[in-house]
Amino acid sequence: MPVTDVQHDLDNLTLTITADFAAPVARVWQVYADPRQLEKVWGPPTYPATVVEHDLRPGGRVTYFMTGPEGDKHAGYWLVTAVNEPSDFSFEDGFADLDFTPNPNLPVSQNVYSFAAHDGGTRATYVGTYASAEALQQVLDMGVVEGASLAINQIDELLAA
């Protein structure tokens, strides 16, 4: 399994997930740069993602929805703030209504996804920072650690294909 460590820090308002992949940095980068690859791994297996809009440039926007086993849909968005291909990108990640209007009742996180060569492959570090300990606790209670881990653990299969 690629996920090797998960840390949540209520004092620093962060959730950090570390994963190791047996593929070069440029190949792991493509998982996020290509919307068709991203939608294979963004949601957990029982909530596959459909990427609607994908503009991975500073100021760009990525919109998506995940479809649950009962056909229920859950939308979200990224507002891309920085891109340093292939080493890292930063974005605001939020929940949205099905028309991709941000949902103000759910937490927003500021994220940095970074990729570095490590042991002949790639170490990915995913850091989300929340506005408050309550916001971080809310997503922890919603199962973000389990859902993100299941999603990230799908990347190996995609890389091997």
Automatic annotation (TrEMBL):
Name of one Pfam family that matches: AHSA1
InterPro entries (UniProt xref): ASHA1/2-like_C, START-like_dom_sf
Gene3D superfamilies linked: 3.30.530.20
Residue ranges occupied by any Activator of Hsp90 ATPase homologue 1/2-like C-terminal domain in the UniProt entry: 23-159
Entries under CDD domains matching the protein: SRPBCC_CalC_Aha1-like
The organism's place on the tree of life at top rank: Bacteria
Family statement: Belongs to the AHA1 family.
Name of this chain's protein: SRPBCC domain-containing protein
